[in-house]
Amino acid sequence: MSLDALIDSLPPSAKDLKLNFSSLVRNNSELTPQQLWGTVVATAIATRSESLTAAVFADAPGHLSPQALEAARTSASIMGMNNIFYRFQHLSSNPKYSTMGARLRMNGLRGHGVEEVDFELWSLAVSAINGCGKCLDAHEKVVREKGASEELVMAVIRVASVLHAIGVALDAAQAIAAPVPVSVA
Question: pLDDT at residue 180 above 70?
């Protein structure tokens, strides 16, 4: 199913999400196409919504080069790992953990082949979905040092928030429509 068809199929309770999707994705003027669609891809993966991710991947090749599509996937994958590790270090009350190195491979942070600001924006968006304050601060700092405005950062976060909410709405609609298994004692 195409992404537009999936969005159009959202239940009435997601009317605001449809409107926000239209203004933030269909009619976006704040982000370059690569920034926008890389954010859509990376955040769709981060939502863990199968139907949303499948629909995004059906449409993304029309908006992203194969290299940018792979970089967005890499961002989501690496942040899926890093957000857990660094969120643990940040939230643990034991100060020793924050002194210990990650010792995790993160080569994808360097060899992705797209504009560094774009990759960092995607990583920032995924970190917002995954709730890692340490990664949010780190990626926001990098994009700001590379010249991205606060308005650009907020544009990416808006897209991430709407994509995440769409994933939630889709998963809820699918759960409600699915028959509830009855256990026989």
Answer: no
